[in-house]
Specification:
Protein name: Phosphate-binding protein
Structural class: alpha/beta
Number of helices: 12
CATH topology of the largest domain: D-Maltodextrin-Binding Protein, domain 2
Keywords: Phosphate transport, Signal, Transport
Organism: Streptomyces albipurpureus
Distance between the termini: 10 Å
Strand content: 15-25%
Family: Belongs to the PstS family.
InterPro entries: ABC_phos-bd_PstS (IPR005673), PBP_domain (IPR024370), Phosphate-bind_PstS (IPR050962)
Order of helices and strands: EEEHEHEHEEHHEHEHEHEHEEEHHH
Strand order of the largest sheet: 4-3-5-14-6-10-8-9
CATH superfamily of the largest domain: Periplasmic binding protein-like II
Length: 377
Amino acid sequence: MKLQRKNGLRASALGALAVSGALVLTACGSDDNSDSTGGSGAKTSAASNIKCDGAQGKLLASGSSAQKNAMDLWVKNYMAACSGVEINYKSSSSGEGIVAFNQGTVGFAGSDSALKPEEVDESKKICKSGQGINLPMVGGPIAIGYNLAGVDELSLDAPTIANIFNGKIKKWNDPAIVKQNEGTSLPDKAIQAFHRSEDSGTTQNLGKYLGAAAKSEWPYEAEKKWPAPGGQAASGSSGVAAQVKQVDGAIGYFELSYATSQSIPAVKIDTGATAPVEATSENASKAIAAAKVKGTGKDLALELDYATKADGAYPIVLVTYEVVCDTGNKPETLDTVKSFLTYTASDEGQKVLSTAGYAPIPTEINAKVRETVAGLK
């Protein structure tokens, strides 16, 4: 049943709040917010363009750890502008976020991969009159981070990366690595490869890249569960990054923000372009800009070109979606969800992404996101 708005009705406080161990934020901000004069009655922060609208109370969301650092910034800015509102985002994994969404325990979920058909079908039980849709909100490079004493720069192509993670290349002085890094002294040291222990959209996006750029070396389906034998598992992008940071000879994959914040060097990718491509927000944006919307209706799932050879385009990218109901959202969360996602999709919200190692969503696609958020019911 679609949400019917009654005159004078304002969103009530959310139900029970599940507390995230990683992020427990209390509402802050000034009481100096003033009503806009545009006739809508929307409340706008005096210090920013964030419109709080009918948002109030507490909102719980969960999912992708890939977007945690972006979400931290967004939540901080939003709560500073919207007095009396509390947003709690539990950073876990894409798989766990979608499960929580389809169980109706969160207002929205974060996922590094679009909903599968069976997950969309499951969402109809919660969305009632509608279904779950994908709203691309965060873009960015997946860094191949490494820890190798004395080696500050490293270039690898897709087949080599695939063979490292499937256990076929076991030493850092393997001929395939040496050939791509002439002039670099590589040690006779065992490679310690780390991957995600839980279902992860980051894993799936790495799999899509390897499946497109190194088909013979990576014959696995691109799924959220780690498919290859060997290696060592760690929980969350933060867990993989922590292991790479601590273990000499380690290599792993995680969002660039984790590499940047912990000073972990990242592999340059030899795509066949004129020069190996560095993992940067700008280079990821070049790859994401070529994405096409493959979703139908209000769903904005994207198709990325993981095999790109364009100069300066970093190919191992992900787009993190916020998963919401197109219609049938809970009355007690709708105003807050719309207000918060309106901010994250705004020019102001997208601008902060580059400061944290992420890439803003391309303008044309982001315009569709804003339009869809405005029409949520």
